[in-house]
Specification:
single chain
Length: 472
């Protein structure tokens, strides 16, 4: 069940909120926990063992959190932290990466001329495992470092891990950031109103913008990368760049809105990233909770920038290799992470000062860098990725027999031009600034109502594509 579905908006959400607000304050956490487990059960209905895995994850992490907090000897605390983190990573590696490692080992064995082939284990990825694993690890690390006290109530802890607004695709919410709201939070009609407005904006970005822009990117795949012109290739990757932004930004806003309705302050995940002048700045504005997680639990523990330039670059390499691999068990994601490391490294060596001094140059650089980097992210097949680059850059060596329809970019430009223009305008952040200025006016209410019912119409017509980040 996704947020941009009629089942969620007209069935699950109103029934849940009715029960939630009727519950006495002391039972609200249990109500949210139970509702979140039902939400998760819907998502894993065909693989119910994943619900048991999720429940076991909550129980084991609760146990390790308690044991770490109650251990006085440092070596015992460290030992229990190690086993807690190992437990979480074991399941993530098993389900997400075993198939990748096995296929690559088999490839090496074939190159060596050996007939031995290992069986490939590639199960369906448990819903939300990348996100709830990171939340559990951050909780254990914070309890170990004593930056957060452990949660004595299992229900409260389980509610934190399973909270459905951010369970499946984030934002990644650390325990310490919402500890006070878990224990005590306020509810009001004003908060409900603000939450519904935020949810509606996110829904509109997802359904009316991201889904439509995704259609243009899908057209390129349908036609075949070898059969598209250079202008069409640039149009398509621009569409994907906007699609992935509004898809994930829309989901994050919906999660934030739902959290606000229930009294939680879910952190911002995006801050106009496409206005950045450098890739360094971009990653301070894009998926900010993931960036903060890697900074706090990987980069700084490795030493951050405290041990000289060489170690700083080593730590950056570790972070970006892991960031790429976290997004998917595929070589294209590893290459994407390494490209991010390379660009940010070059910027640290002095390029960033030039880009910030000449904003026009910075924007041109980012328009090019963002588009190229998303090709590595979007195209998982390396041979097809190579084909796509030959279409983006026609001066590269071309394969024989590649032909395309010369006017394809005009055809698809007419079909998707309005969506592209709207996407570019919304990427500037100006519509959101305008909304924040007039959000309490009657005109804003009318616009949001129109957006909501427009989304409902599109979903009724079957235009309710799944969120891109669900697969990560």
């Amino acid at each position: 069940m996704v947020f941009s579905s009629l089942e969620f908006i007209f069935q699950f959400l109103p029934i849940f909120l009715l029960i939630y607000f009727l519950c006495p304050a002391r039972y609200k956490n249990f109500c949210l926990f139970a509702g979140s487990m039902l939400f998760y059960l819907y998502g894993v209905w065909d693989t119910p063992l994943y619900l048991a895995l999720f429940g076991a994850s909550m129980a084991v992490n609760y146990f390790f959190g308690c044991r770490i907090a109650r251990s006085r000897a440092r070596f015992r605390r460290r030992k229990r932290l190690f086993w807690g983190v190992a437990y979480n990573l074991f399941w993530l590696l098993l389900f997400k990466y075993t198939g990748f490692f096995t296929e690559n080992i088999n490839g090496i064995l074939r190159l060596m001329g050996l007939s031995l082939e290992l069986p490939v284990f590639a199960p369906v990825l448990p819903v939300g495992i990348s996100f709830y694993t990171f939340q559990a690890i951050s909780y254990l690390a914070d309890v170990y470092r004593k930056t957060a006290e452990y949660e004595p109530s299992f229900v409260n802890f389980a509610m934190y891990i399973s909270m459905f607004p951010q369970l499946i695709a984030g934002p990644i919410v650390t325990y310490s950031s919402i500890k006070k709201e878990i224990s005590r939070r306020s509810h009001s009609m004003r908060a409900v109103e603000e939450g519904l407005k935020t949810f509606t904006i996110g829904l509109g970005l997802k359904v009316l913008l991201a889904n439509r822009l995704g259609g243009l990117w899908n057209e390129a795949g349908t036609v075949g990368y070898e059969s598209i012109s250079t202008p069409f290739a640039w149009l398509a990757i621009t569409a994907f760049s906007l699609q992935i932004y509004f898809d994930f930004y829309g989901y994050s806003l919906m999660a934030k809105g739902l959290g606000r309705i229930m009294g939680f302050t879910i952190p911002e995940n995006f801050h106009d990233p496409y206005l950045s002048l450098s890739m360094t700045e971009f990653w301070r504005r894009w998926h900010m909770t993931l960036g903060s997680w890697f900074r706090d639990y990987v980069y700084i523990p490795l030493g951050g920038s405290r041990k000289g330039k060489l170690m700083t670059f080593r730590n950056m390499l570790a972070v970006w290799a892991l960031t790429g691999f976290w997004h998917g068990a595929s070589w294209n994601f590893i290459l994407w992470g390494l490209l991010m490391f390379a660009l940010i490294s070059v910027e640290k060596l002095g390029l960033i000062r030039i880009l910030e001094r000449v904003p026009a140059l910075g924007h041109l650089y980012m328009a090019f860098a963002i588009s190229v980097s998303w090709v590595l992210f979007a195209v998982t097949d390396l041979s097809q990725m190579a084909v796509y680059f030959t279409r983006l850059f026609p001066f590269l060596p071309q394969s024989e027999g590649m032909a395309y329809f010369a006017g394809d970019y005009l055809k698809y430009g007419r079909l998707y031009g309005l969506s592209l223009a709207a996407g570019l305008v919304f990427a500037t952040g100006l519509p959101m600034k305008l909304y924040r200025r007039f959000k309490n006016s009657p005109a804003a209410a009318v616009v949001l109502l129109a957006v909501f019912w427009g989304c409902v119409y599109c979903m009724k017509m079957g235009m309710d594509d799944p969120f891109l980040y669900f697969r990560f």
